């Protein structure tokens, strides 16, 4: 006979009575495994939150190196599909990718752990800037410039690895080049979404007659009811907070509405958020222009997502409580959208009819990352011969010596402090 695990057994039939007593142990073992995975997500995300300098594009490079190359929590196809999905969604793309990886690894609590642990170091650092380091000029220090050079090496390594796998023939390489050109020539907030959409349509027609290859996929540990619930909560908050703001006139509801709406409707990453937040906070008199710019400079000097600039603004506006409100409100849309869309996206990406579309979308993602490698990373970091030498050395350490990213980051900090 076969037991519940599908393993053949020669045990006599009466012994089946002992199976119920074994179930609690199995459930306990499963629970321990889930919590172990959540702990792993938290630990890795914390380390990345402490060392991932260079902005969202660099973060995607760090994630690829850590989660795909080293730990193999995701295969390259799943990771690239996740990146493509997050280019479609509004909000902080790198944080959304991190949330998605956490959900793949350990369910909703894994996604929460990934977001919290990746975000918290940056948020705390910017709250400390708000309290103690305002106007210190730290953002212009040599070690910060060294971190920008490190980001160039990290992203170059990620783009090279992804390009070799995902843009390996003439058509796909041409698609990557076209996506790169479009991203550089028309740097608008919706350009990336347009590139992904056009690439998907082109791939559907170019490869529709090809035999779809067997695609690997990682299970999404979120049910569709939970996903629909997340999307409903997102819609209710997006529509309800402005009404509540108008009805009450309370400052904390106004702030929550501002941050939530910013996180829910902004495409293009952290830099696009800045003018919107400036119009809300500076124009309303909640923060001075000088303090706003000081916080922006500090945000460039810390690891993690640039959206934690909201933590600084919240602290300047209303201390620790304001920082907590701002951080939760601006990132909550990202969590709700990823949790709501990912289960449906996971099913869609395995559909054979989507194979050709995703094939060109993958190449377009490589092109988008290549464009970002040039601008803003290369143009702002490689300004002389010394920076180029350090970037090449860091790349060799990462690509050929196979050193862990945190060690490469440390080398970049020391190089920046010594030479820049």
For the structure shown, list the relevant keywords:
transmembrane helix, 15 helices, Chromate_transpt, disordered N terminus, mainly alpha
What report would you give on this structure?
The chain has 420 residues and is mainly α. The longest helix has 41 residues, at 93-133. The model is unreliable at 1-24 (pLDDT under 50). It is globular. Helix content is 76%, strand content 0%. It has one domain (36-211, 228-420). Helix 7 (191-206) runs antiparallel to helix 13 and helix 9 (251-265) packs across helix 12. Keywords: Cell membrane, Membrane, Transmembrane, Transmembrane helix. It comes from Paenibacillus lutrae. The chain crosses the membrane at residues 112-133, 145-163, 175-207, 227-247, 259-277, 323-345, 357-374. It holds the Pfam family Chromate_transp.
| SS elements, strand count | 0
**Contiguous runs where pLDDT drops below 50 for at least 5 residues:** 1-24
What count of domains describes the coordinates?
A: 1
The end-to-end span amounts to 71 Å
DSSP helix fraction: over 70%
Helix count equals 15
Determine the structural class based on helices, strands and strand pairing: mainly alpha
List the helices and strands and how they pair.
Blueprint lengths: L18 H33 L4 H15 L5 H13 L4 H41 L8 H25 L3 H16 L5 H16 L17 H25 L2 H15 L4 H12 L7 H12 L8 H41 L5 H27 L3 H15 L5 H15 L1
